[in-house]
Amino acid sequence: MIHPNPAAQSRFTTAAAQGLRVFPVLAHGKKPGVTWTPYRESAPEAALLASWDASNFNVGVITGASADLLEIDADSRRSQSSARWSRCEMDPMSFPRSTTLASRSRKTPLTRR
C-alpha cells in the first residue's frame, strides 16, 4: 500500500501562499493541464487550488516579467558557466540589473527591482 505524502497533498495551495503563480501541468511532462494565461494576472481561488491539490497534476510556476520571477535553466547546454551562477548564489545582488530572457519565440527584457 502506498501512503500519500501530506506535503504533496497541498502543493498548489502551499506554493500559492508563498506568492508563486501556479497552474497544473500534466504528469510526466511540461504541457499545461489547463489554459494557464489567466493566472498571469491573478491567483486561482482557494477552491480551485484545493481541486488541483487533489489531482495528479504537477505544479507549474508562471515566470517572467508578469510574475516578476526569473527562471534560470542551468542544466542546458547553452547555460552560463557554473562559476558565474555560483557567484550569483553567494551575492544575489551581483546579478545584472537588466537581463534578457531568451525564448524560442522572442526576447523579453526583465529588470530586477
Q: What do you see in this structure?
A:
This protein has helices at 11-17, 46-53, 82-90; strands at 22-25, 58-61, 98-102, 107-111. It is an alpha+beta fold. It has 2 domains: 8-62, no CATH class; 72-111, no CATH class. Strands 1-2 form a two-stranded antiparallel ribbon. A two-stranded antiparallel ribbon has the order 3-4. β3 and β4 form a beta hairpin. The longest helix is centred in the C-terminal third of the chain and has 9 residues, at 82-90. It starts with 10 loop residues before the first helix and ends with a strand.
Shape descriptor reads: globular
| Domain unit count | 2
Q: Could you give a short account of the major beta sheet?
A: 2 strands, antiparallel
Instruction: Report helical residue fraction.
Output: 10-25%
InterPro entries: DNA_primase/pol_bifunc_N
Protein name: Bifunctional DNA primase/polymerase
Region (Disordered): 91-113
Organism: Novosphingobium piscinae
